[in-house]
Target: Gfo/Idh/MocA family oxidoreductase
Amino acid sequence: MNIATIGTGSIVDTFLSALNNIKDAQCVAMYSRKQETAQPLAEKYQIPAIYTDIEKMYQDPGIDFIYLASPNSLHYEQATQALQHGKHVICEKPFTSTVAELESLKVLAKQKNLMLFEAITTIHLPNYQLIKENLPSLGQIRMIQGNYSQYSSRYDALLAGETPNVFNPKFSGGALVDINIYNLHFVMNLFGTPESIRYTANKHANGIDTSGVLVMKYPDFIAECVGSKDTQGLNFVLIQGEKGYIHVEHGANGCQNVILQTDGTAVTLNNQTTTNKLYYELLAFKETYKNQDFDRCYELLDYSYSVMKMLVAARKDAGIVFPADQP
Model:
C-alpha cells in the first residue's frame, strides 16, 4: 500500500508517524507547491519523492493511495482528480464542503472501482468499539453531552485582522466542520441519523463559526455537542441512560479512556495501546485494501455521506455559507 500525501501541516506529521507503524504500508511521495515546505517531513520520514507538480504525482504508477490533508475547500477537486487518475483516496475530515460534492465523489469511486475513505479517527478506535459493546448496560438512553474545545493556534491571528484558512469561509473552515464534526460522528455512528438537527454558533464578522452548540433530536433522547476553537474547555462525552452512564474522558476524537458506571460501580475500559489516534483508522484502511473489501469501503462511504448531510444541514441552520454552496 503505497501512499502519497497532499499537505504539509501537523496532521500530516501525525499521519506519517502512524503510517510508520503499519506493516506493508508506506509513504512514497509528497506533494507541496514548494519543495522546501515538504522537505523537513520528507527527511524526517525518509520519503523518496517530493512533487511540486500535482499532475505528475497523480501520474506516478507507483502510488496506490492519495492522502488529502489540504484546506477543506480543495478536498473535492483533488479527490476527483486522484480518482480520475485511478488512485484510491483517503480524505481528511470534513470530506467535502457540500453534499453534492460528496455525492459526485461516491459515484466516481464506484464507477472506477476505487476505494474512498474519510479519515475520521473516532469510529475506528478500539475504545469506541468498547462503548458500542457496553451501551446496552445503560438501559434506555436519555441524554448525550459532548464537548470538544481547543483554542486554535490561529485564533489570535483572526483577532488581529488576518483570515487563516481554518477561519475562512472561502476555504470551508470553522468550528463545526473542523472540531464539532468529531462529536457528530461519535453520536451518529452509534445511533444513526437524528430526527432533527440544529446549530447555534458564535460567529466572526466574516460569517465563520468560531464555536457553537449542535443539538440532535432522536425519538427517545437528545444529544448536545459543543465544539469550540475560541476557548479551552473540559473535553468529554457523557452518555446517560436510565441504568447508568458512560464517561469518555478527553473528548470524542480520541476516546482515550472510558468509564462505565452502572449499579453504583465504576469500571475503566481501555483497549488502546498507542496515543496516535490515526494509527487505528490507517490500520482499518490497510486491512480493507488488503482484503479488497469494497463492500466495507462503500459501507463506510455511505455512512460518511449520511453524516455530511447532517453536517451541512447544521451549518446552514446557523446561516454559515461557503462559496461552494453556490450552484
Q: What stands out?
A: The two ends are 37 Å apart (CA to CA). The mean pLDDT is 97.
